[in-house]
Amino acid sequence: MEELTMKAYTTMRRNRRHWCLGNPWRIRTLSTLFALLFAVVTASSAFAWTWNNNATVFNGPGLCVQSTAGIDTWKSGVFSGNIAYADTYALSQGCGAGLTLPDGWAAVRLDLFKWTGSEWQLCRGTNFTFGATGVNQWGPYGPSQVFSYGSGGSGPPPVCGTGWYGTVAYSFVWDGSAWRGGGVYSGPELAN
Amino acid sequence: MRERYGATIFFVSVTIVATTLGATGIFAQVVNQQTPPPRPEWIGADGKLKPGAGPRELSVAGPDGKLLQDANGSVRKVPSYFDAVPAPPVRGDYQTR
User: CA A40, A42, A47, A53: dihedral to nearest 10 degrees?
Assistant: First the structure.
């Protein structure tokens, strides 16, 4: 009896294995379907966020200034939101180690732009936020700005309507005699 | 044998193309029928702001995505501040630390 059960079990496993792996057409079809499914799934989640991370806007004697401009969009079923953000970092010359500078020696502001189909228009802008720079357990830090431009989905729509958005961050660091830095563009992001 | 080999190449090719389209987001553009806009003209190919290249004034988008207008119907514009730098830090800012 036990032998019969083992035989049946072995046959069942063999059949299952044959269905999955023994038929090359099934393998090809399944792998192709999987690839198409992957393409469709990633299609809905693509462009959830775009950022220009740690772009060097100044590299000179004794100082390197890096800037981050980012824009996130709300996506259904995903922990996400319509958020624009900007960061400023101060590093040593050559963009090596992070520099520790006093409060007020680094600044950041950000503009949020909306694409109309023919030109980029200003949607929201901020004044400069000042702060200190330094290094912690996660690496260099500096002043940052972040704000929501609308919930999206069932909440309030993006503040300037649905469409393509982009962030420009302006990052500056005081080197003791002048402000050094510049602006960077996040790249476009489709917000609904 | 040759037919089986050809069919395998076909399926592998379809799999690679579909996976690549999905991973790169190209399929997303097709599905959403949306093409990303060009970068602003005052942004260089390196993604950085081109000094002095931006307009002095910018039009402003309203909540509906349309241009904000003044009461007299003209397009509202605000200074761009593209080339603005912060005021120098006051001495007290760094003496307190």
Answer: -160
Determine the Cα–Cα distance for residues A70 and B58; give it in Å rounded to an integer.
Answer: 21
Tokens of A191: 């917000």
What's the maximum distance between 2 C-alpha atoms anywhere in chain B? 83
Spatial distance between the Cα atoms of A179 and B88, rounded to a whole number of angstroms:
8
Question: In terms of CA atoms, which chain B residue is nearest residue A158?
Answer: B63
Reported ipTM: the value is 0.72
Strands A129-136 and A139-141 turn out to be antiparallel
- Give pLDDT tens digits along chain A (192 positions): 556 555 665 565 556 555 555 566 666 666 666 666 655 555 444 558 899 999 999 999 999 999 999 999 888 777 788 999 999 999 999 999 999 999 999 999 999 999 999 999 999 999 999 999 999 999 999 999 999 998 766 677 899 998 999 999 999 999 999 999 999 999 999 998
- The whole model's pTM is what? 0.73
- Rounded Cα distance between A81 and A73, Å, is 5
Tokens of A112: 């949020």
**Residue ranges of B 16-75 with Cβ closer than 8 A to chain A:** 16, 18-19, 21-23, 25, 27-28, 30-32, 34, 36-37, 39-40, 43, 46-49, 51, 58-67
**Residue A81 to residue A71: CA distance in whole angstroms:** 9
Q: Please answer whether residues A74 and A97 qualify as being in contact, where contact means their C-beta atoms are separated by less than 8 angstroms.
A: no
Contact assessment for residue B76 and residue B70, using Cβ atoms and an 8 Å cutoff: yes
Question: Taking a C-beta distance cutoff of 8 angstroms, is the pair A47, A70 a contact?
Answer: no
Task: Collapse the DSSP code of A99 into the 3-class scheme (helix H, G, I; strand E, B; otherwise coil) and give the result.
Answer: coil
- Block residue for tokens 């520790």: A100
